[in-house]
Amino acid sequence: MVALAALDGTACLLMLSLGRHAVGMLAPLAVQMDALTQYPPAAGRKLLMDFGAGQGYEGQELRSSLSYLLAHYEQMGVHFDEVWAWEPRPVNQSTYWQGVPPDVKFRLHLYNTGLEGDTTSPAHPIQYIKQNVQAGDFLVIKLDVDTQSVEIPFMRAVQADADLRSRIGEILFEMHYIHQDMPWFIGYGDGISYNDALNLFHSLRHEGLRIHYWP
Ligand SMILES: *[C@@H]1O[C@H](CO)[C@@H](O)[C@H](O)[C@H]1NC(C)=O
Q: Topology of 48-213 in CATH?
């Protein structure tokens, strides 16, 4: 809740004036704050799934979260064994892979396709998580695909399934909601209010899920 609570009018105005990169600092700060007693996580595979990973690997151009997440988790003692990245916008494969460091190349699986809304589909990553992520693994999910019809069913599935939640170490989620300071987001705030966002984050944290607002 730390980062979400900080996303009041002041923080949103900061976003308006400084752009997305400035507020990108909020969520990892929250991760570090409540991570003090638990990092690095116990032995087990360290897994990252990045939904909305961007068209390039490097974060400097504000197109990608991957290099940012890998660097920050590395600082906290988490070296990801496997990294899955989904991005529906076209990725230039030759320039993309030129930007990926050699040690990351062997761990990165890039899917240049979008997520579907139906979380019960055999091709949905949630089904993969339920079948393949084991107790003791540490799975980090970042969900930011700017599409409510994909994100909300994803989060409802997490909310409804304790077994699924037990396989997730941490979620970073950009939940869009209607806010007077973010007029251009209202189009896809799509009926989600600030209270809806607070309620979802609060209920999931109450269930013990480490969920952080993204970015
Ligand atoms: C990828 O980018 C390179 C370098 O800009 C360019 O030469 C190439 O045509 C691009 N490939 C595609 C499929 O667009």
A: Rossmann fold (3.40.50)
